[in-house]
Fold this protein.
Amino acid sequence: MLKTALQLYTVRNLPNGPETHFACAAEAGYTGVELLGDHGLESEAMSELLEKYGLEPTSSHVALDELESNTDRVVGFHREIGTKLLVVPFLPVELRGNDTASWQMIGRRLGLLGKTCREAGLNLGYHNHDFEMVSVGGATGLDIILSAAASEDLFLELDIAWAVRGNRDPLELLDRYRGRCPRVHVKDLNPDRPEEQGWADVGDGILDWDILLPATVEAGTEWLVVEHDSPLDPVRTANRSQAFLVSKGFGQNLI
């Protein structure tokens, strides 16, 4: 059974900081959380919060410049709290490729960083949005990035909804990168929700999860990571998304 985690970006606007965010994830029934770096905490304080709420740190989003400029500190922190996977969550506009060579350069850059992480006992991944789905020279930016880095040095954290927004078939991506997607982001799309930028709680939109969820299993995914970029009610989103996944036989209902 795939386990479920909450990407804490979803609940970033809840008051009172990290403890509230961890409590929300635990109360909704998740067994893991995907971190946003160190959340301003020392490793000991982070470990205490994780233990208090019974949560596993499945992975952590860390900006590329932070990873490159403070590699030892970032790696050390995450090793101390037991996180095995780091993820580059986004590329600023000035780093995005506009031709095959520039996307290849990004892939090699990520691959070198991933090799450094791997040698230190961690693995590095890349989280997609929609801008990497643009075709350049017969391939998309995402495919060029992943082909320019060795699979052991860079995994794909596939964001299913962002892939769909980029007019890419997530089923094809899950099949193409089978064994290279240990974490998959799940959120839904609902064009009738402009107040939430067209995003929706998992199961409350237009995506066909009866097809998508089994495909993540076939791809070798270990954790489904729930995320919503602009929830009006983050607590509702965390709870409804988890309840839906549990109803489909995924995750563990602890509440």
Q: What stands out?
A: DSSP finds ten helices and twelve strands in the chain. The chain has a mean pLDDT of 96. The longest strand covers residues 56-61. The CA atoms of residues 179 and 220 lie 5 Å apart.
